[in-house]
Design goal:
about 375 residues, alpha/beta, 8-stranded parallel β-barrel, about 30% helix
Length: about 375
C-alpha cells in the first residue's frame, strides 16, 4: 500500500503521525529574544497530530547574540529563552505534537543595531547582501531596513561558530525539550554564505574549492550530531534560491558533493527548498535536478527522510509522497492561516487565506485568532 500525506513515519528518533510538516516561519513576536506564552498557544494550535502538523519546525532561532538578524526573533543562548521555549514544547507535546528547533546564524543578513555593541555583522567575506532585515523602532513600529556592511570572519573565530551551533542544539534538546533540531543551511544565511561563491571569496581553507566552501556546513553538522545524536538532527538546504542575495556559480556539483558527505552522518531528515524560497519552483537561469540530488544522497547511503518544500499544493504534495519523490512535505504560509491544515487537506478544503499585514510583529491578531474548522 502506497504511503499518503496522512501516513505515519519514523523520522530518525522522532515518530510523526502524518507527513505534513509546518515549515519554519519568522513571525517577530519574541521581544528580547524570549519566547512568550502567546507563542506557546500559536504552536500548540498547530500541533494536533490528527488535524495539524505531523512535525513542527520552529521559527528560525538564533544560536548566539551575534547570530541575530531580525528584531524580536527568539534565541537559544540564555536561561530566560530556554525557559520560554520549554513552555512552548510542553504545550506542543500536551497537544500530541512533535517539534524541532531550527538553529540559525544569519551572518551578513543583519544590521548593526541588532548586533552586540552595535558591531558589524559577520560573514565569510566583507560583501554586503543586497537585502533587507526587520527592525522595530523606539515607538514599537516595525519596518524593513537595508542590511549593514559585514566584516569577514577571522579564521580563528570559526571554531567558535561551530561551538555555538552545538551548544544551541544541546540547549534545544536537553534544556528546552525539543524533539530534535534543524540546522539552517539555506536562504542565504551564514552556512549558505560560506557554501556559495556569490558570498564567499575567502582564500583560506574555508574558501575556493567546493570542499573548502562546504567545510563549515559539514563541521557544524558533525558537531550538532555529536551534541544531540544524529537521529535527532535535520538540515535545511536551498540549492538555487536567490533569497537574501545569494548565488552560486555552479550549484549542481556543489550540492552533489555536500549531500554525499551528509549521507554518511545518519541524519533524521534533509529539508530541501525547491526553487526560489516563497517564489517560483523554477528559477530562471538556475536549473537544478532535485531528483538527482536525492538519488546521490541515497546512493551514498543516506537513510534520512527526504522533505520537500516550496509551492506545494495539495495535489502536488500527495503525488510527491505517493510516488516516493518525498517522504515529507513542508507547508509554510498555509499553516499561518490554517492551524488545522492537515484536516483541510484530508477533506479537500475549505482553504482560507492569510492577512499579510500581520505576518511580522504584533500580537494575537493574525497569529492565534485564525479559526479552525468548526471553530
Amino acid at each position: 500500500m502506497k504511503p499518503s500525506l496522512f501516513s505515519p513515519l519514523h523520522v530518525g528518533a522522532i515518530d510523526v503521525a502524518n507527513r505534513v510538516v509546518m515549515a519554519p516561519l519568522t513571525r517577530n513576536r519574541a521581544p528580547g529574544a524570549i519566547p512568550t506564552a502567546l507563542m506557546a498557544t500559536y504552536y500548540a494550535q498547530r500541533a494536533d497530530p490528527e488535524r495539524g502538523a505531523g512535525l513542527i519546525v520552529s521559527e528560525a532561532t538564533a544560536i548566539s547574540p551575534q547570530g541575530q538578524g531580525y528584531a524580536d526573533v527568539p534565541g537559544l543562548y540564555g536561561t530566560e529563552q530556554l525557559d520560554g521555549w520549554k513552555k512552548v514544547t510542553q504545550a506542543v507535546h500536551a497537544a500530541g505534537g512533535r517539534m524541532v528547533c531550527q538553529l540559525w546564524h544569519v551572518g551578513r543578513v543583519s544590521h548593526h543595531l541588532l548586533q552586540p555593541d552595535s558591531a558589524d555583522p559577520v560573514a565569510p567575506s566583507a560583501i554586503r547582501a543586497n537585502t533587507k532585515t526587520y527592525l522595530i523602532d523606539g515607538e514599537g513600529k516595525g519596518g524593513f531596513a537595508q542590511t549593514s556592511e559585514p566584516r569577514a570572519l577571522h579564521r580563528h573565530e570559526i571554531p567558535g561558530i561551530v561551538h555555538d551551533f552545538a551548544a544551541a542544539a544541546r540547549n534545544a534538546v536537553k534544556s528546552a525539550g525539543f524533539d530534535g533540531v534543524e540546522i539552517h543551511g539555506a536562504n542565504g544565511y551564514l552556512l549558505d554564505q560560506f557554501l556559495k561563491t556569490g558570498a564567499n571569496q575567502r582564500t583560506d581553507d574555508y574558501g575556493g574549492s567546493i570542499e573548502n566552501r562546504a567545510r563549515l556546513m559539514l563541521e557544524v553538522t558533525r558537531a550538532v550530531t555529536d551534541a544531540v545524536g544524529h537521529d535527532r538532527v535535520g538540515i535545511r538546504l536551498s540549492p538555487v534560491t536567490p533569497a537574501n542575495d545569494i548565488v552560486d556559480a555552479d550549484p549542481q556539483p556543489l550540492f552533489d558533493y555536500l549531500i554525499r558527505q551528509l549521507a554518511t552522518m545518519g541524519l533524521a531528515y534533509v529539508h530541501v527548498i525547491e526553487g526560489a524560497t516563497g517564489g517560483p519552483r523554477e528559477v530562471e537561469g538556475r536549473p537544478f535536478d532535485y531528483a538527482a540530488l536525492k538519488a546521490a544522497y541515497r546512493q551514498a547511503g543516506g537513510q534520512g527522510a527526504w522533505m520537500v518544500n516550496n509551492g506545494y499544493d495539495p495535489l502536488l504534495a500527495e503525488d510527491a509522497i505517493a510516488t516516493g519523490r518525498a517522504d515529507l512535505v513542508a507547508f509554510g504560509k498555509a499553516f499561518i492561516s490554517m492551524p488545522d491544515l492537515t484536516e483541510r487537506l484530508r477533506r479537500g478544503g475549505p482553504y482560507q487565506g492569510l492577512d499579510k499585514a500581520t505576518m511580522y510583529g504584533g500580537g494575537a491578531h493574525g497569529y492565534t485568532d485564525y479559526p479552525a474548522l468548526g471553530g
